From TrEMBL:
Its main location: cytoplasm. This is Serine hydroxymethyltransferase. GO terms for biological process: glycine biosynthetic process from serine; methylation; tetrahydrofolate interconversion. GO terms for molecular function: glycine hydroxymethyltransferase activity; methyltransferase activity; protein homodimerization activity; pyridoxal phosphate binding. The keyword Transcription regulation does not apply. InterPro entries: PyrdxlP-dep_Trfase (IPR015424), PyrdxlP-dep_Trfase_major (IPR015421), PyrdxlP-dep_Trfase_small (IPR015422), Ser_HO-MeTrfase (IPR001085), Ser_HO-MeTrfase-like (IPR049943), Ser_HO-MeTrfase_PLP_BS (IPR019798), SHMT-like_dom (IPR039429). It catalyses: (6R)-5,10-methylene-5,6,7,8-tetrahydrofolate + glycine + H2O = (6S)-5,6,7,8-tetrahydrofolate + L-serine. Its EC number is 2.1.2.1. Keywords: Amino-acid biosynthesis, Cytoplasm, Methyltransferase, One-carbon metabolism, Pyridoxal phosphate, Transferase.
Amino acid sequence: MTSTNPAVPAPRHAAVAATDPEIAALIGAEERLQADTLRMIASENYVSQAVLEATGTVLQNKYSEGYPGRRYYEGQQNIDPVEELARQRAKELFGVDHANVQPYSGSPANLAVYLAFLQPGDTVMGMSLPMGGHLTHGWGVSATGTWFRGVGYGVRRETGRVDLDEVRDLALRERPKLIFCGGTAVPRTIDFAGFAEIAREVGAVLVADVAHIAGLIAGGAHPSPVPHADVVSTTTHKTLRGPRGAMLMCREEHAKAIDRAVFPGLQGGPHNHTTAAIAVALKEAATEDFRAYAHQVVANARALGEQLAARGFDLVSGGTDNHLLLIDLTSKEIGGKPVAQALDRAGIVVNYNSVPFDQRKPFDPSGLRLGTPALTSRGLPAERMATVAEWIDRVVTAARTGDEDTVVKVRAEVAELMTEYPAPGLPV
């Protein structure tokens, strides 16, 4: 029973615990796990308490098919202003003509772009998945590679970087109607202007998928695609530190096509509680504190890359310009999967990942992908990256030799350090 004494706070998630103790226990376990581990999956972060609260409001109860002022349901007098705030804040933060905040996630947002501009069978060009691209950029196992003709570009073997001359030659040969730039394992600055020049030359629509780097762009730590791309697609979590949602931003000339593609083209009513949380996150992203965070994410990633390189790790492209590091473990004589699993046991959460020109299979690749957004949100400074690199080095060696005692020792050290840097949105 929940206490009625105002001096005694109610248990966290009391209503869930009373209704479904199994789920409440799992939520509590996940809170503890997120509190005492070093979360380094490049696409993960911590949202603020304000964003967390916005996702759990009575806005969940509302259906709102359509757009503000043009709904198919009544009772929208509070919902319309919520969506208008989110749209306006996106426009101001990123400097765009138009913003649609209704896509449920990044993949549906990208599908809406296809629906807005292409017909089935048209050619689309994007970075190949094994080279760091995303499934929805025309890769074969995705619907985008089934319904459309996907053409992939990659990186140069010697540099690990995109060669725009090669991209241009491919575009001139294949004549895509749509070109994606961006990806999920791209550690270097994206040359939006260079891609735009190629798109103009072949008459293609340029889409900048900035799901990973949207927060860095908002905080001024990465160049913006807005002056160059016809459409900007992004998730609202990752470096942007919002809820699990997405946005499509574009020039005014494409606004109607994008809106029609999202609704009624692909989805019904928007998730209004998510829209509210997006609005909160966008307001936070317009602050000086957020700008400092964005620049610190990059500083931490660069410092970590330098520390790992000093310990003999091979970094794809030689380092990073953003939040993300891609490590090729070939020289360490161990695959990415056993290392990722050992790091997880040690309280360092990363994901195994293919590297360009990988000779191993996707489910047992040569690489690790890791990032610094979540640890930066906890306040870890660049000086702490030496400790993080040392832990990773010790665990990689332990994984190769079967030294589980070292893994256990690192786990205790990680948990101890995490007590010094409480995570946003979690109970202390």
